Amino acid sequence: MLDHHPMSPLGAVVTGVSVDTLSAGDVAALRTLLAEHGVLVLPDQDVDDGRFLNFLRSFGPTTFTEGETPVPGFDELNVISNVGRDTPPRSNFHTDTSYVRNPPAYTALRAVQVPVRGGRTQFTNQYAAYETLPAALRTRLAGRTVTHVVTGLDLREDQETTADHPLFQVHPLSGRTAMYLSTPRRCTAISGLSASEAADVIDYLYAHSTREENVFAHRWSAGDVVIWDNRCVLHRADHDGVLGDRVMHRGMVIDPVGAR
What is the largest CA-CA distance in the chain? Predict the structure, then answer.
């Protein structure tokens, strides 16, 4: 039986379910929990890439960030790894692939190799980020859109590289409003504001969203599968002080049920 234990300031641990034997009712329940808590940790999952991919497909069609490194034999998944690197990877709080018109609703990671120390994944509560904004600023920014652009990837000319999205978005399942943005270098404009005004506002919103009391850090264990809702959280990998190999396989889903 599916059970969940909420965490603070966001997220929940889900037990009593195996990701490779989900019923339609389980998937519906997980969607509801994701809309409410933003991040779900499913521990002790003994799954390979094939079963992990089936788990993702149960939520909807998968999507892939072009320019990432695919998992051998599983082109819908990509590898996130520090193996063989002389310097740690860099990661800032962001939402995945927001530079396309229909970005992924869900992202999931499965732990392939867990380091001896460090390597947590951090998440922010974007419902709380919106709700704790000064009322005057919420009013000033209501109805505005943010221009998101691609960074760090070498894409073909025919691929999407920029898209405009509402800054404040009502989640289609929870009915709550979340602030939708990404790392400042990927957010280049806000409708109705000058370039300098937009840059200042984005920096403020980003700092507000990622303040310490609004962050949950997941410490990985072998067998963990973690899935989150990009419509109400930001995330980053904390690569500071990592000891040992950290390898994750990632998949993303466009949700046909709870579309934007």
Answer: 53
Q: Is the peptide bond prior to 9 cis by the omega test (within 30 degrees of 0)?
A: yes
C-alpha count within 13 angstroms, C-beta hemisphere, residue 154: 1
Indicate whether 116 and 23 sit together in one domain: yes
Domains in the chain, number: 2
pLDDT digits (tens, 9 = 90+) for 193-221: 999 999 999 999 999 999 999 999 999 99
Q: Domain range holding 186? A: 128-209
User: Are 215 and 122 within 8 A, CB to CB?
Assistant: yes
Residue 82 lies in a domain: yes
Same domain for 222 and 98: yes
Instruction: Based on the fold, state whether residues 111 and 23 are members of the same structural domain.
Output: yes
Q: Identify whether 193 is part of a domain.
A: yes
Determine, yes or no, domain membership for 121: yes
| pTM, 2 dp | 0.95
Query: Does residue 259 belong to any structural domain of this protein?
Result: no
| Cα separation, 58 vs 186, whole angstroms | 30
Q: What angle do CA 232, 237, 242 make, to 5 degrees?
A: 155
By three-state DSSP, how is residue 70 classified?
A: strand
Provide the 10 A C-beta neighbour count for residue 32. 13
Sign of CA dihedral 181, 183, 184, 188: negative
Q: Are residues 110 and 156 in the same domain?
A: no
Strands (E), 86-191: 106-113, 121-125, 145-149, 162-166, 168-170, 177-179, 187-190
Structure confidence by residue, pLDDT tens digits, 168-193: 999 999 999 999 999 999 999 999 99
